[in-house]
Design a protein that fits this description.
By secondary structure, the protein is α+β, with helices and mostly antiparallel strands. The protein is 26% helix and 29% strand. The longest helix has 15 residues. It is globular, with a radius of gyration of 22 Å. The chain binds S-adenosylmethionine. S-adenosylmethionine binds next to β6, α6 and β8.
Length: 381
């Protein structure tokens, strides 16, 4: 047995033991696909660096293969242009992750959640390294998988890796938010980049009864994964899933560039909620639903919301005599919206994302708590 096969078998063993990998067909795929062919060189975070710096781990460096066989996301590209494979020295670099090989437990969990059956056709959005497309091709057959990648350099590297590993799914370089330029019909769609709302193309390219697995995110960096069933052309409904999944946002959905933050005066009042709640996993999700144009900054009781499109700001602080204050300015009263949403969520018992659902039509996309008639918010479309 090669070192790679031994390390792969060990990781598959761990993921089977902890219950992540429960479907034998997907276990077979995980045992067969060599992740190192897809990842190549990768970046690891320099602990404690601010702004975050990344150290390249070059192909065949000490610990490279072992690193690939851990259950970690491995960043392969920064700022849409710096590929770990192209870095020539070991000096750490500053940047934001724009492509990666998602951690194997998440890739495999998502494939299992998608509930594919033999013979079904799947559209993957976000080819990245090609590793998850290879797993899909192994499980379903390469003629059943189409994968779309936005970045041509990343897409070409994935094509080469897939060829080297012996898989030939259909690959498209383009904007996966537009789906397959040749149209559907797909039985399943899986997105490994996140979106602010569901692209309507997806809802027409997945046949009624088919499923879409996607992570919803936004400009305040909160996330929730949803599994939707397409109910008719252009309509779908589903629930959010347990867990704490996040993905880099689809490039066309990323927030616009903004200048450096300048805090400006505004109207002050007491806050009716503890602002720190919007720094929690689900509190932040609710805040983002309520104020989708805003970016969240800050920490603990000192939160800042900033909507660059309207110049609206809200910032909170501990009050002088206890409690908290908020200063708001601009045409959108961001804190009024967030506060009202958090209070609705608190009144519903503060469910995790899995207590939410989503209903989508051509007219609107609504995320709700509990059931379709529960409190909810429209996604920005
Ligand atoms: C987390 S990575 C994908 C991981 C991949 N499935 C794997 O196994 O390696 C996300 C990828 O989505 C791509 N992406 C971002 N926006 C996209 C879009 N609109 N259409 C297609 N791909 C997109 C990014 O370039 C990046 O390569």
């Amino acid at each position: 047995m090669t070192t790679s096969a031994r390390l792969r078998a060990a990781l598959v063993g761990l993921l089977t033991e902890d219950g992540t990998l429960h479907d034998p067909a997907w276990r077979g795929a995980a045992e067969a696909v060599p992740r190192e062919v897809f990842v190549g060189s990768y970046f690891v975070e320099v602990p404690g660096s601010v702004p975050t710096r990344y150290r390249p781990v070059r192909r065949d460096a000490d610990g490279w293969l072992e690193g690939i066989h851990t259950d970690r996301t491995l960043i392969t590209q920064l700022d849409g242009r710096i590929r770990a494979d192209d870095v020539e020295d070991d000096k750490p670099v500053v940047g934001s992750a724009t492509s990666s090989s998602t951690l194997p437990s998440l890739v495999l969990r998502m494939w299992q959640q998608l509930g594919v059956e033999d013979g079904q056709r799947v559209l993957e959005v976000g080819t990245g390294t090609g590793y998850s497309a290879a797993l899909g091709a192994h499980r379903l057959g390469e003629d059943r998988i189409t994968s779309v990648e936005y970045d041509p350099v990343v897409g070409r590297a994935a094509a080469a890796a897939l060829k080297e590993a012996g898989y030939a799914p259909r690959l498209i370089i383009g904007d996966g938010l537009r789906g397959d330029p040749d149209g559907g019909a797909y039985d399943r769609l899986i997105a490994t980049c996140s979106v602010r709302h569901l692209p309507l193309a997806w809802l027409h390219q997945v046949r009624p009864g088919g499923r879409i697995l996607v992570t919803l995110s936004g400009w305040s960096y909160a996330s929730g994964s949803a599994l939707l069933t397409v109910t008719g052309p252009g309509t779908a409904t589903g629930r959010l899933l347990p867990g704490y999944t996040s993905f880099m946002i689809a490039r066309p959905h990323d927030r616009p560039p903004r200048p450096a933050l300048a805090l400006l005066p505004g109207e002050e009042r007491p806050s009716r909620i503890d602002p720190a709640v919007i720094g929690t996993w689900t509190g932040g999700w609710v805040a983002q639903l309520a104020a989708p144009q805003a970016e969240r900054m800050g920490a603990g009781p000192e939160q800042i919301l900033w909507d660059v499109s309207t110049g609206s700001q809200a910032r909170t602080a501990p009050g002088p005599g206890g409690g908290w204050t908020v200063v708001q300015r601009g045409p959108v009263r961001l804190w009024d919206r967030v506060e009202a949403a958090i209070r609705l969520w608190q009144a519903a018992g503060e469910p995790h994302q899995e207590g939410f659902g989503i209903t989508v039509s051509a007219a609107r996309q609504r995320v709700w708590i509990g059931d379709e008639d529960g409190p909810g918010w429209e996604l920005p479309v």
